[in-house]
Amino acid sequence: MSRKIPLFINGEFMLGSSDHIQPVTSPATQEVLAEVPFATAKEVDFAVASAKEAFETWREVPISERARLMLRYQALLKEHHDELGEILAKDTGKTFEDAKGDVWRGIEVVEQAANIASAMMGETVENVAGGIDSYSYIQPLGVCVGITPFNFPAMLPLWMFPMAIACGNTFVLKPSEQVPMTPVRLIELFIEAGAPKGVLNMVHGGAEQVDQLINHADTQTVSFVGSSRVGEYIYQASTVAGKRVQCMMGAKNHMVIMPDADKNAVLNALVGASVGAAGQRCMAISVAVFVGESASWIPELAERVATARPGAWDDAGAAYGPVISKPAHTRILDLIAKGKTEANCLLDGSECTVEGMPDGNWVGPTVFSGVTPDMTIYKEEIFGPVLCCMELETLDDALAVINANPMGNGTSIFTASGGAARKYQHEVAVGQVGINIPIPVPLPFFSFTGWRGSFRGDLHPYGKQAVRFYTETKTVTARWRYDESEAGKQPNMSINLR
């Protein structure tokens, strides 16, 4: 009998009362792993009300105590790192090593949340005018909402709720209904770390529950990671509802290969960056742009990519796992079929099978050459283990193509020329740039800074920008007279502080 995934509200796990129940299936076998009851409207209201009530006391907890909660939490996450990795691997189909990397990148953000005091320091100027001092405070906002996707069920929730809660807010998490088991374990460890009831809550559901959270009068912020279609809707709806919102959305990430680059480093980097995690990363390299003579490396690239075989999460020889669902599988195969009519298919993974797992959502590594910007396989975010290769003459040509793409999440360049690297990082209109690094996801003392169609909002997740997103600034202008005989001699009828 499959496990029923609980809600978490007001410090307690509870089985939802809804008749709307969705199965959680293994993408490798189609086995039903669990069942997710979508939260009712009353349960969503209860979660928000619990968070609102907890905020009144949590905001008054000294910042040093909030930091210590995060220190205890990151220690527990490290202690249970492999356990979390196994849960996540079974949940998503990722290989065990990839799943552990998912967990670790989340732990890094919790470590930054433990350093919250220095990030929330205000500013002070003494004697700005006639004995008047000005200073500012950074204060929390209230109830924050996080909506996370299937592909990183540990990392992305940990990008959100630890920073929000460390800042003094409370939180309602709505994880992907496709992979709910990992978030449950994250919450269990948060309770063990000493989190008070109501500070973190979790509800399950789809569009209806998301709309309720967005439009609820008592929620203040909305953080979202997912598809562009959903992200655009959430951004517009949240903005209309008066929420502070950040939406991390779709991507089409290019890696530029200059002729002077280290060939072996380029080919090895492209294999992992393109088909790792079955291509289900918003920072995956899905387009390789070969400049000049480097285009001669494409046949050898296809040979190397062909060695990256998919397999089960506990198969130590597998490079990646299945894609998340049957609909995703069908969509990817349809795009590969379309690509065969547009470009040269050097490696076709559409007939992939894995021994002993005939029902898995398997897609083999796939490589196209001769891809141009007008092709469907270039314009669509395939979100599968598919690499599109373009051949261009100059670095300026590459910059023109990349800057014309509507997305701007991540990009990289491989070159031995400092001048080429400097030109590229300066002129490319993309938020995250790697130089001889294929997937330039910044560590959490920076922020995750997608641009253009890959992001909607003003402040990005984690790092300093996350602190600004989850807080508001209050500025105080004060005068304290020591000699009371000087106080209030004449009325001041102007705006000048004198």
Record keyword descriptors for this entry.
single chain, globular, seven-stranded mixed sheet, 16 helices, about 500 residues, six-stranded mixed sheet
State mean pLDDT (0 to 100 scale).
94
Uncertain spans? none
Q: What percentage of amino acids are in beta strands?
A: 15-25%
Based on Cα principal axes, name the global outline: globular
Number of strands: 23
Distance between the termini: 75 Å
Structural class: alpha/beta
Strand arrangement, largest sheet?
Answer: 15-16-17-14-13-19-20
**Helical fraction:** 25-40%
Number of helices: 16
- Quaternary form: single chain
Let me know the largest β-sheet: 7 strands, mixed
Radius of gyration: 25 Å
Please tell me about this protein's structure:
The strands form six sheets. A seven-stranded mixed beta sheet has the order 15-16-17-14-13-19-20, with helices on both faces. A hairpin with a 2-residue loop joins strand 6 and strand 7. The model has no long low-confidence stretch (mean pLDDT about 95). The chain is globular, with a radius of gyration of 25 Å. By secondary structure, it is an alpha/beta fold. It is built from 16 helices and 23 strands. Belongs to the aldehyde dehydrogenase family.
